C-alpha cells in the first residue's frame, strides 16, 4: 500500500497505472479504522 501525499503524485499514478484501488482515510474515523485492515488484507491477496 502506498500513501499519496499530493495531487501531483495522484495525477501521475492515474496517468500511468492501468488500474488501482484508492482508499481514502482520515484520522479518528471509526469506519476508516475498521475497513483499513480489510483493504490491506485484500491487497496482500492480489497477485501484483
Mean pLDDT: 85
N to C succession of SSEs: HH
The total of helices stands at 2
**Unreliable parts:** none
Shape: flat
SS elements, strand count: 0
Provide the structure class: mainly alpha
Largest sheet: none
Strand content: under 5%
Distance between the termini: 11 Å
> What level of helicity do the residues show?
40-55%
What is the gyration radius calculated from CA atoms?
12 Å
Descriptive overview:
With 48 residues, the protein is mainly α. Helix content is 54%, strand content 0%. The chain is flat. The mean pLDDT is 85.
Quick structural summary:
It is built from two helices and no strands. The protein has helices at residues 7-16, 30-45.
Note the topology:
Layout: H1 7-16, H2 30-45
Keywords:
single chain; 48 residues; 2 helices; flat; 0% strand; mainly alpha
Amino acid at each position: 500500500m502506498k500513501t499519496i501525499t499530493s495531487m501531483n503524485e495522484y495525477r501521475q499514478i492515474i496517468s500511468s497505472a492501468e488500474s488501482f484501488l484508492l482508499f481514502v482515510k482520515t484520522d479518528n474515523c471509526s469506519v476508516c479504522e475498521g475497513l483499513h485492515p480489510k483493504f490491506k488484507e485484500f491487497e496482500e491477496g492480489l497477485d501484483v
